[in-house]
Amino acid sequence: MKNNQLHSNFILNGNSFSTSKELIAFSEGLSKYLHQFCTDWFDKKDFVEIQTSGSTGKPKTIQLKKEFMVNSALATGVFFDLYEDTTALLCMSTNFIAGKMMLVRAFVLGWNLDVIEPVSSPLENTNKKYDFSAMVPLQLQNSLSQIYRIKKLIVGGGVVSEELTSKIQDVPTKIFATFGMTETCTHIAVKQLNGFKNRTSSEVEKSSYTTLPNVSISKDSRNCLVINAPKVSDVQIVTNDVVMIISKNKFKWLGRIDHVINSGGIKLHPEEIEKKLAKIIKQRFFVAGVPDANLGEKLILVVEGKTTTIILSKAKNLSRFEMPKAIYFVDAFVETSTKKIQRKKTLDSLFKQ
After folding, report:
1. Exposure winner among 79, 306, 315, 340, fewest CB in 10 A?
2. List of domains in the chain
3. Distance (Å, rounded) from C-alpha 129 to C-alpha 211?
4. Rounded Cα–Cα distance for residues 286 and 293 (Å)
5. Would you put residue 296 in left (φ > 0), alpha (ψ -120 to 50) or beta?
6. pLDDT truncated to tens, each residue of the chain (353 aa)?
């Protein structure tokens, strides 16, 4: 099969297509991003150009081989048991890799795909039931009352909070967090988020990611994840994600090394601290390090929204080193176009005031 061949079972918004030209013409009436991707996917090039989100740096345009995107789609199909005639909902922007890969999975695996506007409450725009979909955390949060209409859901584009995780334990939908990046054609590993409430499960099991087929993992000298995934990348990918390797195909994510705070010689992982604070703070927030004459870096808490009283001592298991030395409130966080918080830019705007 050619890398960009259209599966005969593929259906888009109730329409089937004899040729890729028919699909390209039809897509023009859906959205400019979807139409552009369909045009690019079925051209003669062996790659597509895709922009990274810019959540950890400046957005850039990279070339992804169509062969690798097809391999990623096939691996997702195997891992989640999603083959021909799977009904799927695309409710994310096709301007970015997550939305584009939903299209590729449908093209390659022969899915019946519905595309709707990428709004914050997507299930309000459809009454159907689906086998599979992908959302960002905000969309999941706003769809809790109707999420049962999706059998399997992957969530990416941000960390799923402790509060949201607790809310999805009883829903029948199987929900997974994803780990990956544009360079790996989205996820190379997933973590189950729900279904633990009524069964004995260790904290390691609940917090560990499992790799997809044909992915091997290791750590470098910084304890950062190294990904070997020859089916989706020509090169070994050295990340800035600090991890604990549990087994040959499982790891626990601890946080970003570029977020690590060295406060008085103690290395603090913001993401681990944020998990503990999430139980007492309802607004969006993050912790970060700022220069300090005595400590080198001082741990602070930055909260989005109106000023409220936060009693840090209520956070369980928070050590004295993990206790923020100051709390700041901002009206709104600086975000990427995919709604990821840009920590550094938010801090820059906060301290330039």
Report:
1. 306
2. 11-256 (3.40.50.12780), 260-351 (3.30.300.30)
3. 28
4. 22
5. left
6. 456 689 999 999 999 999 999 999 999 999 999 999 999 999 999 999 998 765 555 678 899 999 999 999 999 999 999 999 999 999 999 998 999 999 999 999 999 999 999 999 999 989 999 999 999 988 999 999 999 999 999 999 888 888 888 899 999 999 999 999 999 999 999 999 998 755 555 666 678 999 999 999 999 999 999 999 999 999 999 999 999 999 999 999 988 888 889 898 888 989 889 989 998 998 999 999 998 888 889 999 999 999 999 999 898 889 889 999 999 999 999 988 777 888 989 999 998 75
